[in-house]
Design a protein that fits this description.
4-stranded parallel β-sheet, 6 strands, 9 helices, 248 residues, globular
């Protein structure tokens, strides 16, 4: 047996011993995995993930009931007033294990959830292959909040969602200059007032004529991504497409 073969056998034996001493568990429910090494999410938890699917609103991406028709079309809200972004798409419904997963990432800086999130994104990667992309811009956090949390979840999600376009991710092009109150629990009017003048563009020349993917973790009312989209378009962006991991 050659040296490489011996090393491979020793490595596999070491991994088997680790699995015996510390059985791999699902990152979402902590249940022991039936087939360790293949995935970090058990079959039951994966089955509880609600992926968005057509028919959707062609603009904001909200999901219709299947009785509404089989083709994508505009929802009443977008027909009444088109949002500032060109399209918005979310990978999942904010349901099942998703809230807990994002809570661990956002508020506990638990990097162990990045593996499961990467698996979930890879399962339905085609959702963002619809448009040409020049720049990928994560929704920014104010420096005070970033310091408290230790990470920007939107920036991490952008890196996971666009693994082949890392050089297109622009971190400091859109910045948050106003330390706003958390949006949770606010009405639509309060959300808009809270985010007024909250964002600025640092280098407008970089946006001129560009197609932008704007990345955030959750689409709730769309207030945050709409405010960001307005800033991006006023600074010269040709189009803005929103990608979020989940939608309420």
């Amino acid at each position: 047996m050659g040296d490489r073969s011996k090393m491979w056998v020793m490595k596999q034996a070491g991994l088997s011993l680790l699995d015996l001493l510390f059985p791999p568990c699902c990152h979402l429910c902590a249940r022991r995995l039936v087939v360790p090494g293949k995935t970090s999410i058990c079959r039951d938890c994966f089955g509880r993930l609600a992926f968005t699917k057509s028919p959707l609103c062609s603009r904001c991406g909200c999901q219709f009931e299947f009785s509404a028709g089989i083709r994508d079309h505009y929802c009443p809200a977008c027909l009444k007033k088109m949002p500032a972004f060109d399209t918005a798409r979310s990978l999942l419904r904010y349901d099942g294990p998703v809230p807990g997963l994002l809570h661990r990432l956002k508020y506990r800086a638990d990097s162990s959830v990045l593996g499961p999130i990467r698996e979930i994104i890879a399962y339905n990667a085609k959702i963002w292959e619809q448009e040409r992309c020049d720049l990928i811009i994560p929704v920014p956090l104010h420096t005070d909040r970033l310091r408290r949390r230790g990470l920007n979840q939107s920036q991490l999600l952008a890196r996971l969602a666009f693994p082949d376009y890392q050089k297109k991710i622009a971190i400091n092009l859109l910045v948050r200059v106003k330390n706003t109150h958390p949006q949770t629990g606010l009405s639509g009017i309060e959300r808009r007032r809270n985010l007024r003048n909250a964002f600025q563009i640092t280098s407008p020349d970089r946006l001129e004529g560009k197609s932008v993917w704007l990345v955030d973790d959750v689409f709730t009312t769309g207030t945050t991504v709409s405010e960001c989209s307005k800033k991006l378009k006023k600074s010269g962006a040709h189009e803005v497409h929103v990608w979020t991991l989940a939608r309420v």
